[in-house]
Design a protein that fits this description.
about 120 residues, 4 helices
Amino acid sequence: MLGCNRVSIDIFTKNNEIELCHAVSEQLILAITLPSNLSLTYLTDTLFPRLNEVKDLGPSSVLIISKRKGDLAFVIDKIPKDLRNYFSWLLAPEEGDTVPISNNQNILGWILDGERRIGV
């Protein structure tokens, strides 16, 4: 992690590991790889509660990586307003290009492929 501009860690990593990594680098980003069987139940029962849990651990940026077209826009538009406003968001859509979302607030940037990054 040393010498990196940014480093990511899976959002479901143990809390103490996230805290330790954040202590080493304030550039830590929480990474969410959306499951290929994404559902509203996953969001409400798993992802949103986890986002609430990690708010106090230090990292303030979240990277969302989608595996299916349409999933990223679906998720970002469903995130509760308090969580949406708390974190800065990096978006990596399966589409390989920016996707329409209802609100660009707190979007830090788009990771489009290995070469193209917007706003990062």
